[in-house]
């Protein structure tokens, strides 16, 4: 029996990584002005500008629901449509938050190829209706990495953003696992965002090593107009802002944001390699980020549960394992062994 | 010159108190399930039930804007009116958040006596219009302690809640500084909330020693129906919930919630006593919680600013000093001395 | 070439029927109090109570978008889900109105059988998720007659409402063409609404002979609580209410509501019978109300367009013809002849 | 005893004027395409462009609540503030509609001079706060004529619009009685709207002789972007649009819009002149449009009520009499006589 078998159920089961924690503790060493007038918030904002090699506008909010919903609300009006994949988190797991924050914008789902939106599918949907009785498409939202652990290449994002420019649509990126995508592609954040036409990026912190917090990054200043008011009104302005911003500073300045993502990706890749060739266990999706989706007989999954492993099966019945900055390689190995063993037990 | 002269500008300039921090660090010792399925969240909820001596429903949200706005939205519909004091925070400093969360409920302000709402003023407003062209009054919101540092007695709250029952109104308490009020009145939390008819209390954490977080406490289970969904949709459900809940556990189990409040109150009281009898400096309001509002000649305030003290003058031109759990009594004494000195310099 | 070939494009191309117009003119004979305090509004309300054989609550609003959206908003909160058919008007043709009025409730679409929702499909959807990350199902909305001209039998509605009771869901009926359904089934309005468990019915006026206006009818008084305020706030309270209510009076008291519906149904039935047996033209759906959906070769449709007929092809490419109270049987015959002729020309 | 003594309670007690009715009946002579694709809607739009001597954008909506609320929502975001007079209809009599349509914009009331907003009062309010905790002022809304029957001169509107330009605010005019103001000032509509800097005008129809309907007129095309979608989503797109637009055509083409307004103004002026010099009855406000507000002893008002006159006393206790297009001069005279008589009876 392993010590922490539950830890791969989600990449938000992990705690706060040491670099983020150290920065938070440092920020706690004395009193400081509120609402972002403290020294850490300005430095964290600048750290994002350095990371993205551009004078972007940065807003720190509490969680991903708010980050994505506020960003989408800033990009459209209530009578607009937001195009995304049918399995996008904003469609399936936010309890109507984008609709709430935007006061009624409708999410329009397009079919995906390899779990990713394509320009063809977006264009077909965006141009399917032109009448006033249906929300006017205004924004495209893509998730990087996707809910199923796929990664959009730079060219794929570029192709989508060019279509968006042509159709007058704005491009939002849900980057709850943006760091993992950068790690996968070995790509500078700028190259995977504004340089390929992303208008607004929600950079995920919780899944990257923070205790809480996401950053909304606008690459177009006009789109960020009055966004601070929007955050305040929506209950997303922290009074003791430094406890939201300083951890980001720790994550960015130390390079932990990338190390953490690489580690998670490596664990996923490692697991996937160790279970190759099993007769009745297979990968539902190629492993491109920090997720492994296993197709396996119910009996195999039962054995794993009995051994204490915890995982979700909400997407097509596959068992999902997620790896965060704190995934213990020894435990990943143990999981791999248990899968191999359970699979072989089936065959005999 | 003092070491940290800026610290009395607001009680949200303070950091995280040791008891809250210790609990957060303890919660960070390992990975844990998300969205409140961790051990700390359940314990923190129970700690509130113990503190309030009743089976209340407890929800942990990120900040006071959200706590009050979500609670008010749960108590009314968009076409209802919310009665509060003209200087209530929900009216003056939330950038329209209650209107946003409730989708358009209107805040109706009533005149106050000693900075507090009275049954007479509430009744006059609640019964002034009965036609369909004006939002139907549905909720009364009182702030305990008030923005001006006053405290409602148990009898005062009771009188208001009895009126509310009579008129079919619900009673919400903005308790950003509820702990300070309990400390002032030396009163059990239950005696200052549900036992005197409060339906929903927003218990402030940030001003009581947390880094962030407030608790929404429903004493009537029916009013809490589906409130978890409401929090989720509004971007107020933390994925790593333990980092929001564990600090509450530290605050409540250790008794720090009350010690912190008492300390802030004591500092305010201390300052007010040390500056008594000055010819041109006086208290704008009696000191009942952790705030001191000074009426003083502009020249006196200028001298204080020159000496490095930081304070707001947004309410009637008075200088506001707020004292949190970390206020250093020696620094409070230094402030008192500077005030006395500045005042005397004026006279000569 | 026919005189008014365009008239079957939609059943809202028709004008105001004589009975409704006469009542409106009568109401215009003198000045009268506003906001429903006039004599006609009370009488029209009572006429609905008589028609439905129960003490229902009746609200007159301007159009179907508002009627359905306000009713749905009254039945749920922003974090709830509304179950309906994928081709329901509230999903496909209201530009996000239900989401707007409810401040973010999510429409959840279920598969249909013969264009109609089934208890099995509703139950599968309503019980598919139980977590807080997805809107909690709260309302079922059915359309009677459906967008494709189908009619729910009393037993079918009953089966759905019994499921709703069991699952704690409320039942809304979009009755834009409710009168047509009553005519089809030769059924008293009560028997097709509250007696089979409908909570709220939106009774369509525009498609039944009015110039504008729909009635929202609550059979459960509790659900109608403060609905007048909701209408007012949402811009749906007419100041000169009599011009909205009196036409209803004319429609109901004269029995025109039913005659109009029967006439439309008869024309649709007539057309469908006259084109039976054509080799390449067929009905996409059985004709149960006032709509005829034709599957025909593009060349046939082109011929019809050339002859001046106007119709939509938005549902599966079929040509839709709709018949209102004013459909001229001679023109319907002419249309039938043109279809037959165009079809035969194809074959040769 | 008079025949229709109740008719001066409000200017929305009047029926549909002959010119509007004739146009509606003409539009009812045959079937026509829906949603504004009919011939009348285009002509009515053009009639507005002719009237305003500019290529404005025109939208026909059902009532004033919707017209003003939709226009304001188009001019601001949820976190913005709308500056208006404390007695503005959008503040006092719309049940929170502007807040609902805008999803939470806050109405900020400024003191008035002679019942009208002044640049000084607007500027003081607009610049009183610059922090993120308070809605950012974005729109000024003025009512022409005002609720108290006052009229802004062209210079007064100009001065306000110049301030708006300087502060980056947009200018909305609630023109429920815009026609009356044009009549008072003998001023072309253009001279009282876009030529003096009004961005959006809501031109009132119900009080000008229609049965229902208001027109939202944008003088800046950019501000009207996607406004049709906004109307649709908010339940303000009539399917049989011609019955909303044709009456406008009748009103505008015949010149009735101005005749009706002049008649109402004349009646008010006439009444005010006939009661001059009474010892205990006086005008609360100068009579500049179609309203007369009388200050009189309660006993006098009681006598009037006894004689069957109906009026409101909601503004400062004064008795309000409103005169519409259908006010019968003989009945106005009778009212004047009754007032004179009741007043003299008091003195003796």
Walk me through this protein's architecture.
The structure is a homotetramer of 348-residue chains. By secondary structure, chain A is α/β, with parallel strands linked by helices. The first copy, chain A, has 2 domains: 5-13 and 260-347, Aspartate Aminotransferase, domain 1 (Alpha-Beta Complex); 18-253, 3-Layer(aba) Sandwich (Aspartate Aminotransferase, domain 2). Helices cover 41% and strands 15% of the residues of chain A. Chain A has 13 helices and 10 strands. Chain A has helices at 18-27, 39-52, 64-75, 89-92, 97-101, 119-126, 154-167, 178-185, 227-233, 242-253, 256-274, 298-306, 329-347; strands spanning 57-61, 80-85, 106-110, 136-143, 170-175, 200-204, 214-218, 282-283, 291-295, 319-322. The first copy, chain A, has a 7-stranded mixed β-sheet with strand order 1-7-6-5-4-2-3, with helices on both faces. In chain A, strands 8-9-10 form a 3-stranded antiparallel β-sheet. In chain A, β8 (282-283) and β9 (291-295) form a beta hairpin. In chain A, α1 crosses α10 (242-253) and α12 crosses α13 (329-347). The longest helix of chain A is centred in the C-terminal third of the chain and has 19 residues, at 256-274. Chain A is globular and about 60 Å long. Chains C and D meet through α1, α3, α5 and α9 of C and α1, α3, α5 and α9 of D. Chains A, B, C, D: Belongs to the threonine aldolase family. Chains A, B, C, D: It catalyses: L-allo-threonine = acetaldehyde + glycine; L-threonine = acetaldehyde + glycine. Chains A, B, C, D: Catalyzes the cleavage of L-allo-threonine and L-threonine to glycine and acetaldehyde.
């Amino acid at each position: 029996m392993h010590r922490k078998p539950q830890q791969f159920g989600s990449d938000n089961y992990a705690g706060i990584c040491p670099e983020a924690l150290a920065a938070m503790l440092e920020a706690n060493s004395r009193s400081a002005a509120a609402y972002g007038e403290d020294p850490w918030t300005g430095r964290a904002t600048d750290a994002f500008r350095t990371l993205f090699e551009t004078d972007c506008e940065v807003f720190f909010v509490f969680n991903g629901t708010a980050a994505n919903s506020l960003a989408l609300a800033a990009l459209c009006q209530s009578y607009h449509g937001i195009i995304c994949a049918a399995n996008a988190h904003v469609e399936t797991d936010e309890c109507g938050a984008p609709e709430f924050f935007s006061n009624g914008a409708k999410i329009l789902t397009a079919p995906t190829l390899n779990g990713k939106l394509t320009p063809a599918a977006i264009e077909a949907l965006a141009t399917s209706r032109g009448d006033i009785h249906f929300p006017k498409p205004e924004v495209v939202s893509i998730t990087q990495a996707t809910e199923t652990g796929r990664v959009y290449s730079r060219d794929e994002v570029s192709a989508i953003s060019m279509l968006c420019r042509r159709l007058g649509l704005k491009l939002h990126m849900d980057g709850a696992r943006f760091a993992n995508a950068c790690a996968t592609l070995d790509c500078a954040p700028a190259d995977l965002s504004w340089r390929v036409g992303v208008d607004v990026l929600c950079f995920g912190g919780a899944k990257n090593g923070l205790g809480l917090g996401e950053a909304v990054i606008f690459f177009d200043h006009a789109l960020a107009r009055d966004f601070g008011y929007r955050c305040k009104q929506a209950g997303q302005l922290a009074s003791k802002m430094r406890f939201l911003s300083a951890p980001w500073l720790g994550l960015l300045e130390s390079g932990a944001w990338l190390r953490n993502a690489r580690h998670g990706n490596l664990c996923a890749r490692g697991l996937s390699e160790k279970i190759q060739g099993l007769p009745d266990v297979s990968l539902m999706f190629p492993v491109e980020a920090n997720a492994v989706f296993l197709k396996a007989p119910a009996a195999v999954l039962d054995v794993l549960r009995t051994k204490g492993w915890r995982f979700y099966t909400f997407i097509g019945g596959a068992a999902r394992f997620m790896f965060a900055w704190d995934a213990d390689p020894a435990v990943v190995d143990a999981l791999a062994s248990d899968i191999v063993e359970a699979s072989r037990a089936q065959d005999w």
